[in-house]
Amino acid sequence: MQSDLPPEHAEPKVASPFAQTEAAVPRQRKNQKRLFLWVGAIIVVLAIGAAGSFFVTRYLNDPYRTLETFPMAKFLENPRSLSGSRFKAVLRVEADLKWKESIGRLMLFSTDDDSRPIAVMVPTIVARDIYFTKGQTYVAELEVKEGGLIYANTCRKN
User: What is the topology classification, in CATH, of domain 68-157?
Assistant: First the structure.
């Protein structure tokens, strides 16, 4: 038993060379706050950038942005004065008048700003992919052709 040995024959205790030094760990509270602030700022900037790019690309990808709005009152006053012109319009379906495979669909629409109906010829290429039902709204590129007949060159659901 080692307890019976005199102290000079006892094994020395092992001590760490760093036992008498203080721990030099830097405070992390300020660093953590700064880190959270930077991460938060980066997230806000990314969110604003994503929202901004979404709206910019949505606006720039709008094929109707360069067209004037369809002047319903001017058209009803003198349809031939607008011959050859192209416009954009938000149209509400009023009635489906006739369908002919080789020509297209003759429809009655009203616009957002005027409830009076206008007849619009929707060519087969455009009408083939769209199911028109009364009351639905569509955005269309309209062209007034010879004689005042309106053609929808393109059309998409609003």
Answer: OB fold (Dihydrolipoamide Acetyltransferase, E2P) (2.40.50)
